[in-house]
Automatic annotation (TrEMBL):
GO terms for molecular function: nickel cation binding. The gene is ureF. UreD, UreF and UreG form a complex that acts as a GTP-hydrolysis-dependent molecular chaperone, activating the urease apoprotein by helping to assemble the nickel containing metallocenter of UreC. The UreE protein probably delivers the nickel. This is Urease accessory protein UreF. GO terms for cellular component: cytoplasm.
Length: 242
């Protein structure tokens, strides 16, 4: 494939990338708040939303973006003629185990798997014959969100670089969409937050493309987010499951 400075590589699907960023998907912003709701319950105010967005991007976002890229590469390997070519990308089961080890909060692991299951269902519906989708269903029927996103992106023709930006953007827009439901925020200001975060989104996405294997999967801690996520599971009155 050839690259263009002004667009995606030949053969990549721009529309599919837009589809995977749609908040109406089973894994979209209508189903979860990217941890913002428990943060708001704990006292986070309007002026804390953008710093929260950036903090997630630099911790959870970095880890998930690398995981999505590695899953995409494994999916590409499984799509070769033999289906068994080993180009160095970790298997799905190994990637899932690595994500579990880097996600100490059981509530966060469960939320990620719930979102991943919805994304895998979407991929299986749209591309039922895709070998990587079938392999992920066998190896991890309830995959983490970034693993399912990477496989779905490959199945739908979304390239690696577009996937990395998509993974970051999807998390950021989930935070902003939830903020509009939870706090008195001007939608124009919320839109500006996404644009303000673009340089950091691009930087995190670019860094993820240099990952070579599980040793490059970040293990970054976000203790308050983990604590808030655990507390959220005990609440009976909430808008979002996570």
């Amino acid at each position: 494939m050839t690259s263009s400075r002004h667009g995606p590589n030949v053969g990549e699907s721009v529309i599919a990338a837009y589809l995977l960023a749609d908040s109406r998907l089973p894994s979209g912003a209508y189903s979860h708040s990217a941890g913002l709701e428990p943060a708001v319950i704990a006292g986070l105010q309007v002026d804390g939303v953008y710093p929260y967005l950036i903090s997630r991007l630099q911790t959870v976002g970095r880890m998930e973006t690398v995981a999505a890229v590695l899953a995409h590469r494994r999916a590409r390997e499984l799509g070769t003629v033999t289906g068994e070519h080993d180009g160095g990308a970790p298997g799905f089961a190994a990637l899932e185990a690595a994500l579990d080890a880097r996600t100490p909060s059981a509530a966060q692991r469960e939320a990620s798997r719930r979102l991943g299951r919805g994304m895998l269902r979407l991929a299986a519906t749209l591309k039922p014959g895709d070998p990587a989708v079938a392999a992920l269903k066998r190896e991890a029927p309830r995959p983490h969100r970034p693993v399912a996103l990477g496989v779905a992106a490959h199945a739908l023709g979304v390239g690696e670089a577009a996937l990395a930006r998509l993974c970051c953007y999807d998390d950021a827009q989930s935070v902003v969409a939830a903020a509009l439901k939870l706090l008195p925020i001007d939608p124009m200001s919320a839109t500006a937050w996404i644009l303000d975060a673009e340089p950091q989104i691009n930087a995190v996405a670019g860094d993820a493309l240099h990952a070579n294997g599980l040793d490059d999967l970040p293990a970054l801690s976000a203790p308050l987010m983990e604590h808030w996520a655990e507390d959220h599971t005990e609440r009976t009155r909430r808008l979002f499951v996570a």
